[in-house]
Amino acid sequence: YHVTLMIDRGYSSASAMKVSADRIRRRCPPEAQVRPVVLYVGDHDPSGLDMVRDVRKRLVEFGCPDWLDVREVALTMEQVRRYDLPPNPLKMRGGELSDSRAEAYRERHGEGSWEVDALPPDVFKRTVEDALKAYIDQVTMDAVISEEEAVKARLRRVAAAVGGRR
Question: Among the residues of the chain, which ranges form H helices?
């Protein structure tokens, strides 16, 4: 789908957020009138839900437009219920909740939290693809794929010609 994937464990570092903000600004300059969208996939737990807010806030701090849209693709409570995902207990440390956001989370969602990797792989794939397809210009995508196929064919011909000279 020609999208940039950023994988983090926990909150993104400032340097990773700056690189992302720079990339978004390059690809979506104001004069292009393209509204950048970040699709977020993360756990349904106190930190995972807060990261949607954090990603948007920090990207804007690093110069992305204030109207940057950060969309939560997964894991939502609706997905947790629909697929009857197994809960995990909220993380504890020394008998206390380990995350400062955990108490508010517990009041809203109860004692359990859920990991995005509990989604069945086919459901996860379909969920992400559906979210991406909502933003893809299929005509442009088809043209890019066609050009890629032509380049691959040329590379195969060159490789075959070079291989035949050994």
Answer: 14-27, 46-61, 77-82, 102-109, 121-133, 138-163
